[in-house]
Amino acid sequence: MTGLISDFKFFWETFVTLLVITDPPGVVPVFLGMTASKQKPERIRLAWQAAVVALGVIVAFAVFGQSILAYLGVQLPSLQAAGGLLLLLVALELLTGRASEPAEHEQATANVAFVPLGTPLLAGPGAIVATMLFVQRIDSIGSGIAFAAAIAAVIVLLWLAMRFSGVVLAVLRGSGVELLTRIAGLLLSAIAVQLIVDAVRSLVSEGLR
Predict the structure, then answer these.
(1) Domain boundaries of the chain, sorted by first residue
(2) What is the 3-state secondary structure (H, E, C) of the chain?
């Protein structure tokens, strides 16, 4: 009984942490900003593709993250800073309106579901680092199941947020989505800068030890 309660608490801790980091409501304006020019079937396809990509990236780092970083000689703060820089580029595109207007030579090959939606927006440095830390706390089959269930629940919520973003699009119309896109770009740029600042602080503090 004690183990079951412990696993349940571990599930909620993992679920709430990843939910706050990935922020499904906050993904909606960014998703709309990058897919507003596409038809509904295309947005639905991009939504599930982005969710699958995010799940794959998170699972990959959960299983192989520590080994990959150790092999490459990369510290977690460095990964966080790189993710922050990528998000900053996405934020600048949203602020300038370029995210929903790809160049002609990019339209045939670019798939925003993979980059930047799947990663680093959904499966960003924050989610990856948190996942790698939670993996280290798995000490039983029950806690492993709780961990997997928490990740699956968060991915489902992210998919639902993107899948039904069309409702927001229908309510706000074109001008409203454009305004929301600019606001999302501003907020995303702040998040990106904060990730970089936190990474620099971590690297500096480790260097002073």
Answers:
(1) 41-208
(2) CHHHHHHHHHHHHHHHHHHHHHCHHHHHHHHHHHHCCCCHHHHHHHHHHHHHHHHHHHHHHHHHHHHHHHHHCCCHHHHHHHHHHHHHHHHHHHHHCCCCCCCHHHHCCCCCHHHHHHHHHHCCHHHHHHHHHHHCCCCCHHHHHHHHHHHHHHHHHHHHHHHCHHHHHHHHHHHHHHHHHHHHHHHHHHHHHHHHHHHHHHHHHHHHC
